[in-house]
Write a structure and sequence with these properties.
The chain is an alpha+beta fold and 181 residues long. Helix content is 34%, strand content 31%. It folds into 2 domains: 44 residues; 111 residues, 3-Layer(aba) Sandwich (Aminopeptidase), CATH 3.40.630. The protein has 5 helices and 6 strands; from the N terminus they run αααβββαβαββ. The longest helix has 20 residues. The radius of gyration is 20 Å and the shape is elongated. It starts with a helix and ends in a 22-residue tail after the last strand.
């Protein structure tokens, strides 16, 4: 169902009709579905939170960084990024951008976990994530389909204030200032 159909189903019928329509045996299950729907519709509109990376001096867009696959109820999102042009790669720009976006995710989006999935051979991305305190969590075999074959992904995770063992990790306590362009 699309968001409009869900809205109509919940707003234009009584709970008994809704329970029958969605096929739930109890009102509690119906209420769980209603909450999931509301959270899902928020996610439907906010699944992506992208930022364009500009060079301040030239006002030139050189890449993007942001979140996708954002699960609001679970307080986690996947991070993605890209720098365009070889002149800007390995220049520190993405390290700076990633730090700001990570801080935004923890402070403004209330994330607890940020995850990244990387091709095993993408050494530059792996180095960037590890430099940004992401922890390697494992390998997902045949995780996605690309170039007519299944590809593996290395999973990295970053937690707001603790690593996977519950220990404090050097958290992100950056002061980010928005500079008007």
């Amino acid at each position: 169902m699309d968001p409009e159909a869900y809205r109509l189903a919940f707003e234009m019928s009584d709970p008994g009709e809704q329970q029958e329509f969605f096929g739930y045996a109890t009102r509690d299950r119906l209420e769980e579905e209603r909450l999931r729907w509301q959270q899902g519709m928020v996610t439907f509109n906010k699944s992506f939170c992208w930022f364009t990376i500009f060079l301040k001096a030239e006002q030139t867009a050189v890449g993007w960084c942001g979140f996708h696959t954002w699960y609001i109820p679970h307080r986690r999102a996947e991070i993605g990024y890209e720098i365009s042009g070889d002149d800007y790669k390995r220049s520190g720009l993405m390290t700076e951008a990633l730090a700001a976006v990570i801080d935004y995710g923890f402070t403004e989006l209330n994330l607890n976990r940020i995850e990244a999935f990387v091709e095993p051979g993408n050494e530059a991305s792996i180095k960037l994530l590890e430099k940004s305190d992401f922890l390697k969590e494992g390998l997902l075999r045949e995780h996605y389909f690309k170039n007519n074959e299944f590809q593996d992904s290395v999973v990295y995770g970053l937690f707001e204030k603790k690593d996977v063992n519950g220990l404090n990790q050097p958290g992100y306590h950056l002061q980010i200032k928005v500079t008007p362009y």
